[in-house]
Amino acid sequence: MSHSWATRLPHPALRPLVTRYVGYAQDDVTLPVHRGLPSRHVTLIVSLEQPIRFAGLPGAGSLQGLVGGLHTSPALITQDRVQRGLHVELDPLGVRALLGVTAAELSGRVVDVADLGGAWRSLPARLHSLPDWESRFAVLDEVLAGGADVSRVPSELNEAWRQLRRSRGSVRVSTLASEVGWSRRHLGERFRAELGLAPKQAARVLRFEHAGRLLRAGCLDLASVAVTAGYYDQAHLSNEWRALAGCSPRTWIAEELPFLQDDGSGAEPDSSA
């Protein structure tokens, strides 16, 4: 399989809300089904080839462009031999400002990008008509910047989410609530209302994502990965991987890792934003 990737940071004004843009092109893809793993991001994907065929999440189907919310199970994607498109990583607390809906409304499901209305309806066709990644990234800057307002998110929630990300899910929820001056119950209510996940669920996803980054970076000693990512032991890591990825770590390493090593996914999202 031949593949290439192009990554770029969004316009500076968008960086509190958008982590990065990724353009991808792959030929002769042999893996029939790709597991879209849980992560800290709400994802916007636009295919420049055949529609994306999702399964296993509400709203899934065959879509040219889609937005996928935070999830705690794998999103299964049936793959074509040739794939080309764009993948955008959105901070869940920026989704309300960028898309006009909350991340909670998207949680555990995918939505046709055309259903967002306005400039989103024509986005797949616009991106398809352009000759290169840079011109496509410029269109993403333009569309995402329309009406974006970072002030819509309470500062306490922003700070709690920042600390949870920075700790890679290791900070205790009671500590987190105390740090921002909210009760644990209120913090949980606000998290669920805005992100669609409780703080403990979000922490679970962040630990899992950290483990995945370590594997992509070449650390394949599962016992070491487990300790570094904050799991009790290798058995705990393996159980969580089966729950969140739908397979064991070894199966994922054998089936998926060879196709993902060069996509920039090993980069720490917080440091690249």
Taking Cα atoms only, what radius of gyration do you get, to the nearest Å? 18 Å
CATH class of the domain at 2-150: Mainly Beta
The first-to-last residue Cα distance is: 30 Å
Strand ordering within the main sheet: 1-2-9-4-7-10
Q: Please mark out the parts with pLDDT under 50 across 5 or more consecutive residues, or reply none.
A: 261-273
Number of strands: 10
- CATH architecture descriptor name of the domain at 2-150: Sandwich
Main pleated sheet: 6 strands, antiparallel
Say what the CATH topology of the domain at 2-150 is.
Jelly Rolls
Query: Per the principal axes of the C-alpha atoms, what is the gross shape?
Result: globular
Taken as a percent bin, the fraction of beta residues is 15-25%
Q: Which structural class do the helices and strands define?
A: alpha+beta
What is the CATH superfamily label of the domain at 2-150?
Answer: Jelly Rolls
Query: Helical segment tally?
Result: 13
Query: What is the share of helical residues?
Result: 40-55%
What is the overall pLDDT average?
89
H/E series: EEEEEEEEEHHEHHHHHHHHHHH
Record the SSE blueprint.
Layout: E1 2-8, E2 18-27, E3 33-36, E4 42-47, E5 52-55, E6 62-63, E7 65-68, E8 75-78, E9 83-90, H1 95-99, H2 103-106, E10 110-112, H3 123-129, H4 133-145, H5 155-166, H6 173-180, H7 184-194, H8 199-216, H9 222-228, H10 234-245, H11 249-255, H12 257-260, H13 269-272
Antiparallel strand pairs: 1-2, 2-9, 3-8, 4-7, 4-9, 5-6, 5-8, 7-10
Helix pairs in contact: 3-4, 5-6
